[in-house]
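mind reviewing these tokens:
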Amino acid sequence: MRHLIIGNGPAGVVAAETLRAACPLDDIRLLGAEPEPPYSRMAIPYLLEGQIGESGTYLRKAPGHFEAQRIALQHGRATAIDTAARSVTLDDGSHLPYDRLLIACGSIPASPPIPGIHLPGVMTCWTMEDARRIAAAVKPGARVIQMGAGFIGCIIMEAIVARGASLTVVEMGERMVPRMMPPGASAMLRARTEARGVRVLTSTRITGIAATATGLRATTGSGETLDAEVIISATGVRPDIAWLAGSGIETAIGILVDHRLATNIDGVYAAGDCVESEEFGTGHRIVNAVQPDAVDQARIAAMNMAGRPAHLSGALQMNVLDTFGLVSVSFGQWQGVAGGARVEVDDPGAQRYLRLEFDGDLLVGASSVGHTEGVGVMRALIQSRIHLGPWKDRLLTDPTQLAAAYVARTQAA
């Protein structure tokens, strides 16, 4: 059996290793569009901070790991799939046959329609080559504008500050991380960020970028101009699926898959950031571009490719963010549900925040800042869908009793 995996990020690597364990004699090929060994994009900020070298970003650091696993690594970009012939076309015109195919090609940066967005000095921070360009351009004292204060923007900005740059963050939403945290938590992250010398502009949109004698000038919707040597576009990512046009594989925002991570085409599976799957607890389709979910999907897809039935119960929204040492998390339906109860505890002085969302006596969402000791319990209570019974009222009075509630209700169950 020939297994071809398109994409050598965390999902692709875990799928390949899972396949090898399940199929000792099968042919496994891992295709990567970048020339580097498989690496983690989430490690790029640590690279820019100087905490690790490029090899520190590699997903498997032992020399000869993939050779020992008999997983063939190949460099090339997939440009088309002929699902009838079971063949993938690469950018050099060559073809790779397959019996089972996993698409784990991930996401690509979204490019906002701003005049001047492609000028030299305007960069994304997504690939290893991006990191090299940023490291070369962002020196101590450099003026940097970062567009976007979502999850990706917030993991980049600490690295920019660590390089000694003067940073201005521009976010079109009304608050930082608007798709991850409620207003109270977001305000806490903003205060932490501004305390580190970062200027944060929310409800602000950059409408144009122009070259100047000394670098770049960005104009905002209010008419303010901001000068910089470097502008980093961190306005989000989108599934890398345009190249699938004409393949017959069904897509919407991402590749549509079932609970087995199978597409509508026999023998073709998908996992990771390029996938649109059912959300845990709601049944709505979402693109859940987080590494833990990508890895879970990869394992399930690989088991099914190996002929060992497995299914995923749904994609759980989860975000964990470290903002200048202040850890924030959100899980599940953190925005709340119609008719559901909510409790919120906000202590800006101690930089601690906790909010719980209930649907009946089920905990369906949670967000916190500074409560690292309760992160595992939040996720476990949401995913287990344990009925809290009388503990719901106790948590509405004191939400910090999550651990006690979990122990009591799991023992009762």
